[in-house]
Structures are given as structure tokens and as C-alpha cells.
Amino acid sequence: MRNVFKFFQIALLSLPLLAMRQDKPLRVIFFGDSITQAGVGPTGYITQVGEMLKTKGQAGQFELIGAGIGGNKVYDLYLRLEDDVLSKKPDVVFIYIGINDVWHKASSGTGTDLDKYVKFYEAIIRKLKAQNIRVILCTPTVIGERNDNSNQQDGDLNQYAKTIRDIAARNSLQLCDLRKYFADYLVQNNPENKEKGILTSDRVHLTEFGNKFLAEKMLDALLQK
Amino acid sequence: MRNVFKFFQIALLSLPLLAMRQDKPLRVIFFGDSITQAGVGPTGYITQVGEMLKTKGQAGQFELIGAGIGGNKVYDLYLRLEDDVLSKKPDVVFIYIGINDVWHKASSGTGTDLDKYVKFYEAIIRKLKAQNIRVILCTPTVIGERNDNSNQQDGDLNQYAKTIRDIAARNSLQLCDLRKYFADYLVQNNPENKEKGILTSDRVHLTEFGNKFLAEKMLDALLQK
Amino acid sequence: MRNVFKFFQIALLSLPLLAMRQDKPLRVIFFGDSITQAGVGPTGYITQVGEMLKTKGQAGQFELIGAGIGGNKVYDLYLRLEDDVLSKKPDVVFIYIGINDVWHKASSGTGTDLDKYVKFYEAIIRKLKAQNIRVILCTPTVIGERNDNSNQQDGDLNQYAKTIRDIAARNSLQLCDLRKYFADYLVQNNPENKEKGILTSDRVHLTEFGNKFLAEKMLDALLQK
Amino acid sequence: MRNVFKFFQIALLSLPLLAMRQDKPLRVIFFGDSITQAGVGPTGYITQVGEMLKTKGQAGQFELIGAGIGGNKVYDLYLRLEDDVLSKKPDVVFIYIGINDVWHKASSGTGTDLDKYVKFYEAIIRKLKAQNIRVILCTPTVIGERNDNSNQQDGDLNQYAKTIRDIAARNSLQLCDLRKYFADYLVQNNPENKEKGILTSDRVHLTEFGNKFLAEKMLDALLQK
């Protein structure tokens, strides 16, 4: 009898815990630019992460939220951090930003200097860490798919990617090294050294397959412990 | 008797108020870029505002603080707003930013798009107004002193200046229209249409006389009611 | 008798001259960029100059040739001067170049420095004058139709236009001051200070009306003596 | 007697020919930008090629001429080709241009689009080949000495270098692949991955050692048959 009581006691105590694990999925925000904005589309990478989780029977454990706005640079993320991320109380935030910071230097004269990029990037991290949010840093993917470092912005993208790797190391944060994954893939799978058409449709934005490729990497990072 | 008591009561209540008016000068922060950073130098414009106030016997009424950092654009001000301005509890803040936002487009590909400029500018204003701080908006001065709109960045500077005038009107804020003051002065006082050497030493940064000219305009704005 | 002989002598001498005036129309080449490339379209400015000449009954006196290529800057004109102009032995050449030299600074980082612009411009002029070709210099029109010098490139365009006026004066060449004509028109006819839609469809390329306006100015310059 | 006379006659006729072969060294022009302009300085690469030839006892066989002007891009070479190269009737011309074509995109918005770069490059080659001049094409060296393709302009420089290799192949011209030589050297000899200080003093312009390294490569190319 006593044991039975004890059992019930434990069961009762456990209920909220079980409930929490069942009812409250991990809230994951993908924070970025137009690639992330498109990520919630029918074939977008966030949608595909969701489908992959469904296949794994883990759909209920995660709530995926896209917070991408086209044309965004690192300082735009900083400006809308409160409204679009912190106010939503996420458990995990992917930061995937940098392509426009580099690209807009050439296309409109309004890119972001590397030192300022770092300043805003780290300011975002500080605010997320202050809320005990798990932060995953993504290196910028590509502007052009040539696999021999001959796309116009390759030098700059390599530099910004290295910097993000340093920031991750310095802050003991998880890294999702997208630029490396893309580069490795393109060395193997772009024999004609084309500028686009493999993972991107226009040198930057992802094809359905590119979204799938990205989704796999994001999912790996998310599930990694 | 009762009236006497009341009188004393009022007097006692007024004391701290009177004291405050005498003891606590108005704290004024000049928030900007390299021009403002140089403004606290021996002949800088902030120093000269201080000297002008001394001459007027009003030195004790104002505490002038320079918060300028070279190379700053509007988003840099936003990033350091808390640390360099709000934490100091100012009564008045001059915002004098925009030259690098325009200039860096051509010089390093890292200027600021006008729509982003407005977004950050208004975000700064909102945070200042939330603290009941009196805000004075300054239009950007010059990049080149030619007086016929033939300096490379004149079109862009005119556009950003117009936008600041609109922001001031929209938010019912005081405007210190430096670009107009400089333009009017140069029409009268640059007969050879030189690029520099009148108010600036290098097309942007101010000569001692340029600092004096600016100081007069800032002082007028500060004392204006 | 002596007088009769003299009369015949004059008549004989005049014959080739008359013949030349009747048989050989003045060959006019418009040498420029995309605006000139579009100039030979159904409503393009060169086509409209042709129609205006027809109305005046002077169509037979002029042969109009468009030599415009989209994206061209002054050095592109220099590169194709022999093939596209000199080899055609024109009598008159309009040089209408400069918009891309300014515009591409911001849009792709590949504009033309003013000093180089002058060098190539004058090199073109020298080669044309060496063939006794009548040269008419056109100032660049607009990038944006705002009438208060607040289009991004206005400062630069004003600078390049001034430089062309100087080149014309220095070389005693005819000037067709298109930028001034456009500016004057827009002050009168753009009360809402719109960026486009008056003379241009997209801030740069001309509407049918813009082409007509340009055609009138080109025709005036051509017929001016 | 007659034969003797004939012999002398032949000998006399041959003398100038022999003399010419001995007295008239191969005239070599180095055609380029500021690096080539500095190349004729006391420790410049052209000066060092001369000294290397002296050591080899071949100084008399070559006349080395520097034709470099700071800030030059490919179209500047085209503009001064007649005056600075063709008029001097060279036997060999090194074309070493491209750094400013890439660099000025970011530093002043006045770089050269790749397609235009090719057009002017090939126009120069055509004019040189029409005079039967031996042409040696040099790929652009570096803007920054990091050895992992993370200098800002590496992508663009790699692209322009590849293009020059293609032009050389297409036109069956000799290539002096400076960018490859520099890259290979820096992989071996820049263990700290520094931006400058190995072959360059400022990321672009050569140290004395950099000039020596370049001189060796130029000499190899010159003597190669």
C-alpha cells in the first residue's frame, strides 16, 4: 500500500515533467536574410527540416520559426533582435547572416566592414546568451558556385567565414559551417565549374535541392549534442 | 498661522527644486562621428561652445559631453546608445551623423542605404524620447566645399539631409540644419569654388574656423526655446 | 565677253559644290550608350530627329546614324571609335556619354574616375578633329529626375557635366548642354519632385516624350551655325 | 683577284649585319602599373632583371625599358599603347596589368568589369602582334598575402588570372603566371598567414625581396624559348 502510494506520488510529481516534455517543444528560430525568408516556403529549408523531423517521428519535439528578411545584414538582425527573437523566448537560435554584408559592397556600396560585422555579431550573441538561449552560428554559404575560389566575392566570404569560426571558438558556441559544406559539395559535384544551377538558382538563393542540402546540415546541427 | 505654515511648507518643497536648478547643469551630449570626436579637442566645436557659454556667463548651466567616434555611421550610434548616451542620463542629445553613411559607399563599399539609415535613426530617437531626453537633429555638413552642387556626394548628402528634415518634422523634433548653414555660407564665401580650405581642411573635417562656425550654430540650437 | 567667261568660270567652279550639296547629305553619327542605342527605335530620339527634319523638308540633307551600345562608358567609345565612327567617314559626330561612367561607381564598382574620363574624352576629340569632323559635345542627362539636386548621383553628374563644358570651351567645340536642358525642364515640370516618369521611365532611359524633348535639343544643335 | 674582291665585298656587306646582331640588343618593354613604375627604381624588379643578366654575361643582349604608371588599368595601357610602346619598336612586351582593375572596385568604385577587361586586353594584344612583337602575359600578383584565399579580392583576382591564362592559350602567347608563383611561394613561406610583409610591403607593392622574386620569374620567361 505504501509502495503503491509512493508510486502514485512519483507519478504525480513526474506528470508536469512529462507534460512539459510532451507539450512544450523546443522553440527554434532561424534568424537571417532572404535565404531564410524563403526557408519557410513550400520547399524552403526550414519546411524541409520540419519534414525530416516528421519522418524521424520527432516533429512534436521542435517548433521551427523562420525569422528571415530579404536584404538583411548583421546590423539589421541586431535592430530587430528584441521584436523578432527575444520576445518569442526561443530555446535555440540559428544565426545565418553575412551574404549581404559582403555582396552589397559591390552591388550598391552598402556592405558591412568586417570589424563592424564582428561587433554586431558579438552584440547579438551576448543578448542571446544572457537569456540562456542555445546559439548556433552558420558561416555564409556562397555568392557563385565555382569551386576554385574564383567567384568575385570568394576572398571576402572566406574571410567572413573564418571570422565566424573564430567567434564560435572564442565564445564556445556551436558552429554549423555551411560555407565549408557547400564548398566540399561543389568540389565533388560541379565538374563544369558552373556559377549557378547546382545548389543555387542565381548564385545565391537556393534551389529545392540546395534547400534540402541545407536542411540536412541544419538538422544535424540541431540534433547534435 | 495656518497660512504661515503653508508658506513654509511650499518653501520647503521648493528648496530641492531651486537647488536642482542651481546645482545641476543641463547635461548635453553630442553624439556623432570623427567631427564630433575632434569636437572636444582644443579648438573643437564642443570646446568652443563651452567657451561661448563662458563668455555669456552661462557656463555653469550646461555640462557638455562629446560622444563622437571616427568612422561611425548611424548603426554604430545605435549599437553604443546605451553605453555612451543613455547610461549618462543626458538632458539634451545632438545627433550629428550621416557623412560616413554616404561617404563610405564610394570609399570602401560600406555606406548605409537610405531606408536603413532612417530605420536606425528613428530607433535611436525612440529610445531617447522614451527617456524624455530633448533631441536635436543635425543634417550632415559637407564632403567637399564646392558651392554649386558639384561635389561627388552632394546629391546623396542632399537626399539624406532632406530625410532628416522629414524625420524632425514627423517626430516634432528640433532641427539644426547644418548642411543648409554650410551651403549658405559657402555660396557667399567660396568665390573660387574650392573643394576645401574654407570650413574644412580636407573636404570633411573642420578647420578651427569651421569648428567656430559649427559651434555658433550648435549653441543657437541649444539656447533656442 | 570677258564677263561672260568669268560667269562660266564661276558656274563651273560651283558645279561640284552644288552637286555635293545636293547629292551627299551630311552624315551625322550619334555616339553613345543605351539611350543612343534606343535612339534608333520607333520612338527613339534619333528617329524623331529624322521625322522633324522631314517635316522641315530637310530630310535629304542629313543621314543620321546611331552608334550607341548599352553599358558603354567613355573608354568603350574610344575602343570602338575606328570601327564604328571613323571608318564611316561622318561629317558630324555627337558625343553623348557619361551616365554609366558615373552610375557604375555605385551599381557595380566599375565607373570611371573623372581624370580618366577627361583623358579618353579628349583622345576621342583629337581623333575626330584630325579628320575635320564637326564634333558636338553633350552633357550627361540624368540619373533620377528630382529637381533639387537630391538624386544620389547629382553631385557627380554636375561635376562631369561641368567638365564637358570646360572641354568644349577649351577645344572651341559646340556644346549641347543636355543636363542643363533637362534640369531646367524638370524645375518647371516636376512639381511633385518625382524620381522618374517625366522624361525617363526608370530614372535614366527616356520615355517617348523624353526622346522627343531630346530630339528637339539635338536638332537645334545640329542646325545651329 | 676577282674572287678576292668578291670575298671582300661580301665581307663588307656582312659587316653591318654582324654589327647589328651584336650591337642591337633585344628591346624589352615592361608595360604595367605602379609595380612596374617602381620596377625601374634602385631595387625594382626591372633593375634586378638587368643585374641578373649582367651576372650571366648577357647584359648586352637586352635593352630593358619600364613603361609603368601608377593607378593604371588595362584601358589606360590601351590609351598609351602607341606612345609608350609601339613607337619604341620593342621586340618583346610584358603585359602586367589587372591589380587596379580589381582593386579600384572596392576602393573608389572605378574598377574594370571582366568583359571589358578582356576586350581591352585582346585589343592590346592584336596591336602588338600586328607588329610581330613577342608578347608575354603576366597574371596579376596579389592584394594581400594570406595564403588561404581569404584576402578580400582573392576571388576576383583568381577570376582575372584564369581569364588571362585563357587569353594566352587562345592566342598562343607565352604566359608568366605570377599569381601562381606568388601563391605557391606564400603557401610555403607565410606560416603565420600574414597580410603583408613577405613579398609586399603594403599587400600590393613589392619589397626588395618581392622585386627579386618577381625579377627571377620575369627573367625565366624572357629567356625561355
UniProtKB/TrEMBL annotation, chains A, B, C, D:
<dbReference type="InterPro" id="IPR036514">
    <property type="entry name" value="SGNH_hydro_sf"/>
</dbReference>
<protein>
    <submittedName>
        <fullName>Acetylxylan esterase</fullName>
        <ecNumber>3.1.1.72</ecNumber>
    </submittedName>
</protein>
<dbReference type="Pfam" id="PF13472">
    <property type="entry name" value="Lipase_GDSL_2"/>
</dbReference>
<dbReference type="InterPro" id="IPR051532">
    <property type="entry name" value="Ester_Hydrolysis_Enzymes"/>
</dbReference>
<dbReference type="InterPro" id="IPR013830">
    <property type="entry name" value="SGNH_hydro"/>
</dbReference>
<dbReference type="GO" id="GO:0004622">
    <property type="term" value="F:phosphatidylcholine lysophospholipase activity"/>
</dbReference>
<feature type="domain" description="SGNH hydrolase-type esterase">
    <location>
        <begin position="30"/>
        <end position="212"/>
    </location>
</feature>
<keyword id="KW-0378">Hydrolase</keyword>
<dbReference type="GO" id="GO:0046555">
    <property type="term" value="F:acetylxylan esterase activity"/>
</dbReference>
